[in-house]
């Protein structure tokens, strides 16, 4: 307690408006002369994952930072946000990325096609990211939070996959086995040496090839019906979402602020509440080499569950009926 803590660059930024580059910003508040050492990369991973769960996160994975998945010219704290950009320059201390997230509350999600409980899940992800950022700095390591809203400098979907949490879906979202597409991620970039997780293959994309429920229910018609993913983006093979149609629908939703669309999340079989039948389905379907389980599950899904017409989700001024997912 007698050691003098260096001036926080945030204070200077607030006083003068001077941009703070990540080489300074990410180290703010660190008071140790050298960081506390982990016993091993395995020890580091085990502790940090435990703390992520302690901070309220449902799922967590860790992977190596990959500069291919930075947004171009969106680095916070730079004068024109152009000095650090994808393919240009990455801070030297950006070595690893901790990826975690939580689901939205399902009751609220089912009751509205718009933002509904997204903000709640975003808030919990933001809180955990801030707590983890502070925790790492207390240990003596630089940390930079990436969380929903205006604080994403990286593309979360590729990192969710690289960290072994999920796989791409037909709707352009990353689905995780436990929650489907109902997953709101955040992340921390740091220089800690971890034991990295590996990408997984639990046949979720294979299920997407047969399902097509999200494409059939999309009010914008933005999700492709192709049997196979045909587009390769920065090394990832995926279905090509029509982003313009998707955004137009998202920006014209029937919610109070006129934003949001969650139809693809709400109708996805993988995103259903974790009842006993869906728990059994998630365990059986990826392990069935014949594909019969998937066919049976889809027959049940399409015949026993009510699905609205895609156009009915639209606002009444756009020819729709402002339907929720179901009663």
SSE map:
Blueprint: H1 9-16, H2 22-25, H3 41-54, E1 59-64, E2 96-102, H4 106-111, H5 118-139, E3 143-146, H6 156-162, E4 167-168, E5 174-175, E6 184-190, H7 204-211, H8 213-217, E7 231-233, E8 236-238, H9 243-250, H10 263-267, H11 276-284, H12 292-304
Antiparallel strand pairs: 1-2, 2-6, 3-6, 4-5, 7-8
What features would you describe in this structure?
The chain contains 12 helices and 8 strands. The mean pLDDT is 84. Helix content is 33%, strand content 10%. With 327 residues, the protein is of the alpha+beta class.
Structural class: alpha+beta
**First-residue to last-residue Cα separation:** 59 Å
Low-pLDDT stretches are: none
Largest sheet: spatial strand order: 1-2-6-3
Order of helices and strands: HHHEEHHEHEEEHHEEHHHH
What is the structure about, briefly put?
This protein is an alpha+beta fold.
Could you list some keywords that capture this structure?
327 residues, two-stranded antiparallel ribbon, 12 helices
């Amino acid at each position: 307690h007698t050691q003098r803590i260096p001036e926080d660059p945030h204070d200077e930024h607030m006083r003068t408006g001077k941009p703070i580059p990540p080489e300074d910003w990410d180290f703010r508040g660190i008071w140790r002369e050298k960081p506390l050492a982990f016993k091993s990369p395995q020890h580091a991973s085990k502790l940090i994952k435990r703390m992520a769960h302690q901070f309220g996160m449902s799922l967590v994975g860790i992977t190596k930072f990959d500069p291919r998945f930075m947004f171009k010219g969106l680095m916070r704290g730079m004068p024109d946000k152009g000095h650090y950009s994808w393919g240009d320059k990455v801070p030297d201390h950006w070595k690893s990325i901790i990826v975690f997230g939580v689901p939205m509350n399902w009751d609220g999600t089912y009751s509205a096609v718009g933002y509904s409980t997204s903000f709640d899940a975003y808030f919990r992800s933001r809180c955990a990211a801030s707590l983890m950022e502070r925790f790492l700095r207390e240990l003596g390591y630089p940390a930079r939070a990436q969380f929903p809203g205006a604080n994403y400098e990286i593309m979360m979907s590729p990192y969710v996959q690289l960290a072994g949490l999920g796989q791409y879906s037909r709707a352009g979202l990353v689905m995780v086995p436990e929650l489907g597409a109902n997953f709101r991620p955040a992340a921390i970039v740091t220089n800690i040496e971890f034991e990295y997780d590996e990408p997984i293959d639990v046949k979720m994309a294979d299920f997407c090839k047969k399902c097509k429920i999200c494409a059939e229910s999309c009010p914008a018609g933005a999700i492709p019906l192709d049997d196979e993913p045909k587009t390769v983006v920065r090394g990832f093979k995926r279905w090509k979402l029509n982003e313009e149609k998707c955004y137009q629908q998202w920006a014209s939703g029937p919610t109070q602020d006129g934003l949001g669309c969650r139809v693809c999340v709400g109708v996805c079989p993988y995103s259903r509440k974790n009842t006993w039948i869906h728990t059994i389905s998630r365990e059986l379907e990826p392990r069935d080499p014949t594909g019969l389980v998937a066919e049976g599950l889809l027959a049940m899904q399409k015949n026993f569950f009510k699905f609205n017409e895609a156009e009915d989700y639209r606002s009444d001024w756009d020819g729709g009926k402002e339907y929720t997912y179901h009663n």
